[in-house]
Amino acid sequence: MTPFGAKLRQMRADKNMSLKDLAGAIGVSSAYLSALEHGKRGRPSWYLIQRVIAHFNVIWDEAEDLERLAALSHPRVTINTSSLSPHATELANRLAENIADLSEPELQKILSIVKQPTTVRSQDKA
Q1: What pLDDT, on a 0 to 100 scale, did the predictor assign at position 121?
Q2: Burial class of residue 62 (count of CB atoms within 10 Å of its CB; 0-12, 13-18, 19+)
Q3: What is the 8-class DSSP label of residue 55?
Q4: For residue 17, is pLDDT > 70?
Q5: Cα–Cα distance for residue pair 65/68, rounded to 1 Å
Q6: Helices (H), the chain
Q7: Interhelix angle for 46-56 vs 3-14, to 10°?
Q8: Residue 106 and which of 40, 47, 55, 114 are 20 to 30 A apart at CA?
Q9: What's the N-to-C CA distance of the chain in angstroms?
Q10: What's residue 126's pLDDT?
Q11: Distance (Å, rounded) from C-alpha 42 to C-alpha 35?
Q12: Is 3-71 in CATH node 1.10.260.40?
């Protein structure tokens, strides 16, 4: 499941709305919406995101968050490490090989590190 898919599912649950009802309301098939929620489809289009925002009458800050989650929701990621250090290449490859075996707490720990602003990470090195 992608971050956008999880948020969309949560929004549907909060409104007690079925997949079929939401799909009809925003003009997509329930199969597509299910695939989107489960991470079997790529990032949603800007147009689809806007239809979701309008349907749920989402306020400005939450709409920006939804757009940010959509941008982070491509289920197949490519990382170009050609100009980075050998450690960066090793990290990218080890993560690709082992991500399915990481526990939720381990994933959250790694995410907390990479979510930190660059300035905070730089201060930690000092």
Answers
A1: 55
A2: middle
A3: H
A4: yes
A5: 5
A6: 3-14, 19-26, 30-37, 46-56, 60-71, 86-98, 104-115, 118-125
A7: 20
A8: 40
A9: 37
A10: 53
A11: 9
A12: yes
Are the C-beta atoms of 4 and 69 separated by less than 8 Å?
yes
Phi, psi of 62 (to 5 degrees): -70, -30
What 3-state DSSP class applies to 45? coil
The pTM score is: 0.68
Residue reference for tokens 């289920």: 75
pLDDT recorded at residue 122: 57
Q: What angle do CA 68, 70, 75 make, to 5 degrees?
A: 130
- What are the phi and psi torsion angles at 110 (to 5°)? -65, -45
104 band by pLDDT with thresholds 50, 70 and 90: very high
* Extents of the domains making up the chain: 3-71, 87-125
